[in-house]
Design goal:
Layout (H helix, E strand, L loop, with lengths): L4 E6 L4 E6 L10 H16 L5 E6 L13 H7 L19 H21 L4 E6 L2 E3 L1 H7 L3 E5 L3 E3 L2 H5 L9 H5 L1 H10 L2 E3 H6 L5 E3 L4 H13 L3 H17 L2 H22 L31
Parallel strand pairs: 2-3, 3-4, 4-6, 5-7, 6-9
Antiparallel strand pairs: 1-2, 7-8
Helix pairs in contact: 1-3, 3-11
């Protein structure tokens, strides 16, 4: 089995590039990928030679979000020899379905994302193709975002799963409150240019030039004194936190769990999300999100 994450360094170790490596699954996030990603980011953080960490992805898209049922993902959660060990700790053995999910998702979808936001290095997300739902979480944990000109951003969990956003709801901070409501309620997408206009994206490069241009950008950041860079990061993060970002994240996380609990109670099989029906698009056949356009309902 290939590693779910690749790790490489540049400029005599001053820049580390950590890449999601499930290209056939469009880098859908299963438990193995998330655990290996945490290990790789910690490796880069621990290495004092590394000044900047680039979070990238192999294949046609940055990330299609959470893995919703690939063969590997099903094996990971199913009791037996193929089960990932993290499903037997951190609430994984609790009998209560709501408690089990709330604790598991706290550790592997929420607390880990917050931890990556606080890495003691400057981080740059290098994104391309589709960045969908939980893909936004990985990107938003980074200090800077560089996008290919083919990048499309969307969160379809409300439209296709009946859920109030993903576990790490940074949407109102990244999109603005009304745009966040629109994109969540419709499931529509925005492109890299709109992401730049909103202040979410720092740079846009042609797809075939993205890796090289991102390294050029990373070199500029890596040339700054390391402690000055860290203080800049903490100054800006601290300002956002003072405006309520951390409390907003925690509140939204439990709203997310309430959504799971609602569907678990509604369905006889305890499925924790909405099923396809008159109000819900089938995520398996719905196709790509519609582009958000100010002139189109």
């Amino acid at each position: 089995m290939e590693p779910a994450i690749t790790y490489e360094t540049f400029d005599e170790g001053r820049i580390a590039r950590v890449s999601l490596n499930r290209p056939k699954a469009r880098n859908a996030q299963n438990r193995r990928l998330l655990v290996e990603l945490d290990e790789a980011l910690r490796k880069a953080e621990a290495d004092d030679t590394v000044r900047v960490i680039v979070l990238a992805a192999n294949g046609p898209s940055f990330s299609a979000g959470h893995d919703m049922g690939s063969e590997e993902a099903v094996a990971e959660v199913t009791p037996g020899p193929g089960q990932h060990p993290t499903f037997r700790i951190d609430g994984g053995t609790r009998e209560g379905v709501v408690e089990n999910r709330a604790i598991q998702e706290w550790h592997y979808y929420f607390e880990n994302t917050k931890r990556w936001r606080e890495l003691r290095k400057i981080t740059i997300a290098q994104v391309h193709g589709n960045v969908i739902s939980a893909g936004l979480m990985l990107m938003w944990a980074c200090d800077l975002i560089v996008a290919a000109d083919d990048t499309v951003f969307s969160d379809v969990v409300a439209a296709r799963l009946g859920m109030p956003g993903v576990e790490y709801v940074a949407h109102p901070w990244e999109f603005g409150p009304r745009k966040a409501k629109e994109l969540l309620l419709t499931g529509d997408s925005i492109d890299a240019e709109e992401g730049y206009r909103l202040g979410m994206v720092s740079k846009i490069f042609p797809r075939d030039e993205l890796p090289d241009k991102t390294l050029e950008f990373a070199r500029r950041i890596a040339s700054r004194p390391t402690f000055a860079a860290l203080l800049v990061k903490d100054t800006i993060n601290g300002a956002v936190d003072a405006m309520g970002f951390q409390e907003s994240l925690k509140h939204s996380y439990y709203i997310h769990q309430l959504g799971h609990a609602h569907w678990s109670a509604l369905h006889d099989d305890r499925l924790p999300v909405a099923k396809p029906g008159p109000d819900i698009d089938d995520w398996r056949t719905a196709g790509p999100p519609k582009s958000s356009d100010k002139y189109t309902p």
